[in-house]
């Protein structure tokens, strides 16, 4: 998400304002964002620095999950996350209720947006398979349990193929089975998060109704699939 021109200029213009911004003050921080002028500019810079710190921390934490992308790309991920987190936090100032330190409240935005950026990069060059159904597998304590699981797996596969619409099937398999991040799937399918959430809700309801009618619903496996 591009940073609005006004905020971008405040982050890049030099020299930086010399107004003192306190660490974590619940009262002074919001006042600075309402003040305008040098005080506002200084507060935005400090907020962006906080978001950068949070993003660095989260990217480092999630780095084992990232492909080898090099330091330059990591810096780009951190910067993108910090920029988006700054804009998001400024847009949510009215929701800050002072129940925690302001910097603690704001830090969470940096963590969230850094996590999103890392996930996007994890899936950037991976093919999202929206057509093939997975094979159900598990650990069994008895032959009877194995047979029961296989029967249930076939029932679920049949339900996915026959009860769900093609669109519901693609979304359900991608999100619930393959673990594709919802932002990535939304981008690939040209839709948005809310539409995908609605599709998953409807798919689960259809599966639940079908499995209940077939006598499978109520066991731990059925609950896991339909809840």
From TrEMBL:
Say which domain of life the source belongs to.
Bacteria
* Gene Ontology molecular-function annotations: DNA binding; sigma factor activity
Answer yes or no on keyword Iron: no
Which UniProt key words apply to this protein?
A: DNA-binding, Sigma factor, Transcription, Transcription regulation
> Cross-referenced Gene3D superfamilies, in alphabetical order?
Winged helix-like DNA-binding domain superfamily/Winged helix DNA-binding domain (1.10.10.10)
Entry keyword annotation includes Metal-binding = no
Q: Biological process (GO) annotations?
A: DNA-templated transcription initiation
Which InterPro entries does its entry note?
RNA_pol_sigma-70-like, RNA_pol_sigma-70_dom, RNA_pol_sigma_r3/r4-like, WH-like_DNA-bd_sf
Supply the NCBIfam families for this chain: sigma70-ECF
Supply the name of the protein: Sigma-24 (FecI-like)
Q: Which organism does this sequence originate in?
A: Candidatus Neomicrothrix parvicella RN1
